[in-house]
Amino acid sequence: MPGAPPQHPVAFRSLTAELAELVRTLRPAAIPAAVRDRARLLLLDELGAGLYGSTAAGATIVHEEARARCRAGSAAVWGRATRLHPTAAALVNATQAHAFELDDYHPGAKLHAGAVVVPAALATLTEGHGLDDLLAAIVVGYDVMIRIGLAMNASATRRRGWHLTGLTGPFGAAAAAGRLRGLDRDALVRAFGVAASCSAGIFAFSREGSMTKQLHAGRAAEAGLLAVELARRGLSAPSQALEADDGGLLAAVSDGAESEPIRADLGSRFELGRVAVKPYPCCGSVHSSIDCALAIRARHDLSAARIERVTVHTAALIDRQCGFPYEGAGGPLEAQMSMRYCVAAALADGEVGLRQFGDARRRDPDLRALVDRVRLVIDAEIDAAYPATWPGRVTVETDSGARHESSVPEPLGSPGRCTRQMVERKFLDLTDGILEPRRQAALIGLLDRGDGETGPAAIIDSAVAFGP
Fold it and tell me: For residue 5, what pLDDT is reported?
């Protein structure tokens, strides 16, 4: 190609190249059946989150901007009568999937893989791909994204103010899309090199409830697809984008990064198996505390007025992330990121669903008063376990002097506490009024289709694409 820079051979032992080799060579038959089944559930879960997210104000703004600057294309925007170029569709769909805090998360890496990887894979999927192609792309996309998050040392990276979904997402999207596009190892390394230059996302959104959080997922999915296309055209990029001593991503964003989480059991153990599904539309770090609060309310039939004090025993990083004073001025996301608000809502209402984050409920004076009676204390045992596991413990003291406590080792929705029925019910609830029953049934039917069957692109497209 005239004017193109020389392409240097890639050293196979670089971290970046090892991940590329996994993406290129993983055989669908080598993926354990339990991991494939989990991938199906997470696919359905993200479709539900993204379809419901089409109603979000922030996602609508992103959709309008994407339509204004991108030409029409073949990729469906979920729940909208729009087709865009795949990079633009991935931007919108990933933003939608992350819009209401409904998407999955990985505890150890503190990131949301599904909101990035699934939209990127589906925007790249063609009629020539089978279901096994899609599931393999999802598995490698999750694995690349999560392993990089683990290598960053999620706690150290988060303490520096980074949002790991935005940092790692371009790699997960590039892995899924690069796999489906059939890139060779050197092209995948270039794609990862480009993805590293698109890695971004600061955590300064919580207290103000800013819409930029959902945009981090959208931009990551868009960046991954762009990286793949630029790599296919021969754009050069650093071959050691992760591990370079001067400017490698791991050292740039973390003081505690290490390579071992990337290499450990690579190709034989898949991090997708540790991903949790959200039963509550709020930050995953508060879910185990919600579980405890709901258990206390159910056992003791407490009214909010009788509660004198609530103590949430938690980790130091959760206190930093979700323990800020709740002011009620930042919209739904402020409440969704607030430990105080979420635990108070669980105790007051006996549920934490989308209604609890609506304007009317957030402004209720009695609920606000209970929020002010919630305090957080650092628990040494929980602090030592987090973020590898996310245990919770809550204590409630009443006006009669009674003291009630509940604890859980891991939140509802974790792999050990998640069923297919839970995921199906969540999907049906989220898509009620958005999808017709036949469209809902078509997507749920993907859970039972044979891995080698063709046509997943047509099934998903016909279910989520509205209009001509």
Answer: 53
Q: Are 286 and 342 contacting, i.e. CB atoms less than 8 angstroms apart?
A: yes
The CATH number of whichever domain residue 151 belongs to comes to 1.10.4100.10
Helices (H), 57-85: 57-69
The b-or-e profile of 224-233 (16+ CB within 10 A means b, else e) is bbbbbbbbee
Residue numbers of the domain that contains 314: 284-408
The four Cα atoms 452, 97, 195, 73 give a dihedral, to 10 degrees, of 70
Q: CA separation (Å) from 460 to 80, 251, 335, 440?
A: 14, 39, 33, 10
Within a domain: residue 342?
yes
List, for residues 211-269, the tens digit of each pLDDT value: 999 999 999 999 999 999 999 999 999 999 999 999 999 999 999 999 999 999 999 99
What's the rounded Cα separation, in Å, for the pair 254 and 171? 17
Task: Let me know: does 378 contact 319? Beta carbons within 8 Å.
Answer: yes
CA angle (288, 289, 291) in 5-degree steps: 65
H or E segment and range at residue 127: none
Q: pLDDT per residue over 6-27, tens digit each?
A: 555 544 568 999 999 999 999 9
Query: Does the pLDDT at position 423 exceed 60?
Result: yes
Mean pLDDT for the chain? 95
Check the CA dihedral 125-131-135-140 and report its sign.
negative
Cis peptide before 387 (omega within 30 of 0): yes
Q: How many of the other CB atoms lie within 10 Å of CB of 366?
A: 12
336 and 208, same structural domain?
no
Q: Determine the Cα–Cα distance for residues 369 and 179; give it in Å rounded to an integer.
A: 52
Give the separation between CA 428 and CA 105, rounded to whole angstroms: 20
pLDDT at position 246: 92
Contacts of 34 (CB under 8 A, 6+ apart): 273
- Does the reported pTM lie above 0.90? yes
